[in-house]
Amino acid sequence: MSGPALPHGVRGIHALPAEHHDGPWDAIITPPGVKERILGTVLLRLLHGPRLATLAGPLHGLVVLAGPPGTGKTTLAQGVAQAAALAVASRGATTLVDIDPHAFPSDMLGESQRNISRLMGETVPELAARRPHTVVVIDEVESFAVRRSSASFETNPVDVHRATDAVLAGMDAAAASQPRLVFVVTTNFVDALDEAFISRADLLVELSLPDVETRACIIADALAELALHWPSLAGLAQDAEVHHGLAKRTEGWDGRRLRKLALGAIARTPAIAADPSGLDAAALEAEIDSYALWRLSPPPNRSAEEET
Ligand SMILES: Nc1ncnc2c1ncn2[C@@H]1O[C@H](COP(=O)(O)OP(=O)(O)OP(=O)(O)O)[C@@H](O)[C@H]1O
Ligand SMILES: [Mg+2]
Questions:
Q1: How much is the CA Rg of the chain, to the nearest whole Å?
Q2: From the alpha carbon of 188, which atom of ligand 1 is closest?
Q3: 177 in contact with ligand 1, CB cutoff 6 A
Q4: What is d(CA 306, CA 161) in angstroms, rounded to the nearest whole number?
Q5: How far is the CA of 262 from the centre of ligand 1 (A)?
Q6: Cβ(73) to ligand 1 under 6 A?
Q7: What is the C-alpha to C-alpha distance for residues 189 and 268, in angstroms, rounded to an integer?
Q8: Hey, whose CA ends up nearest to atom 10 of ligand 1?
Q9: All domains of the chain, ordered by start, with CATH?
């Protein structure tokens, strides 16, 4: 479902599992145990939410994925919905609701608060009633649950407070009335999130930039994908020694940039771009070197200009 028929603030509604949602979950490589823990937390709620609701400290159905840009947060949030939907499929389908947090700008005086209250109090429960399980993804949630203690009192104090209050109240109500509903949210700025929001999280995962082992795996995976299209790259895609050498030289790179490394190396010369089968380890190393150069030294004329 897409287009103008969607309720306000909803970017997409999908019935899962669906084959075309396969992929994202497997694409993200994390240190051992991280993905299992995310999936385990979502499954606990989807499968046993009603039973666990009677505990003195019940689940809130909130998973927060935090971390720097390009570390796979959005992909994991979308991916866990499909992975969980597959795991619970024998008990019924799952609705994935994709929320657009920018639909609730904090400068729109009481309007945002009313819209958030409607989203949480009406839209989400109505959507959750459609199928036995529901995963609500809120990407870049920092614009949604703004930390009240640091919200500027000059710009929009009352409204920010009310909007965040509305998110918390809405989330509590939804958690209580929809025990098989999970919110999976992402943020670059965990410190910008309201403390009471963070405190409700059943799981807070702070993804970091990939370590050397993970970098090697991401490089290998990206090359393996290319080898599906250009089979003569299979040797390079399987050469663990090359992957480790490249991984050692890419400290500080995020997953997004690592995935683009091979494409950048292919694009270095029109000849390899025309026939990517010509990609080799030397071109990959040269691409890393030129990226490092570009990062470390400003373009020659810029620095002179900036000093004046
Ligand atoms: N750990 C990883 N393993 C493999 N691929 C990764 C990893 N992290 C990121 N990527 C790749 O990088 C790209 C960007 O990922 P994604 O959009 O999920 O990152 P993000 O953390 O949401 O970034 P942003 O904060 O900028 O929104 C995707 O193509 C994804 O496959
Ligand atoms: Mg993202």
A1: 22
A2: 25
A3: no
A4: 40
A5: 16
A6: yes
A7: 35
A8: 255
A9: 10-206 (3.40.50.300), 212-295 (no CATH)
d(CA 94, CA 181): 9
More confident residue, 111 or 139: 139
Distance CA 261, CA 161 (A): 43
26, 34, 35, 74, best to mutate for ligand 1 pocket (most atoms within 8 Å of CB)? 74
Q: Give percent of the chain with pLDDT exceeding 70.
A: 89
**CB burial of residue 181 (10 Å; 0-12, 13-18, 19+):** buried
Burial 55-88 (b: 16+ CB within 10 A, else e): eeeebbbbbbbbbeebbbbbbbbbbbbbbbbbbb
Least confident of 4-13, 73-82, 240-249, 295-304: 295-304
Cα first-last separation, the chain: 55
CB 211 less than 6 A from any atom of ligand 1: no
Structure-block tokens of residue 34:
């991280």
Closest ligand 1 atom to residue 218 Cα is: 4
| Per-residue pLDDT band at 304 (split at 50, 70, 90) | very low
* Structure tokens belonging to residue 183: 């919110």
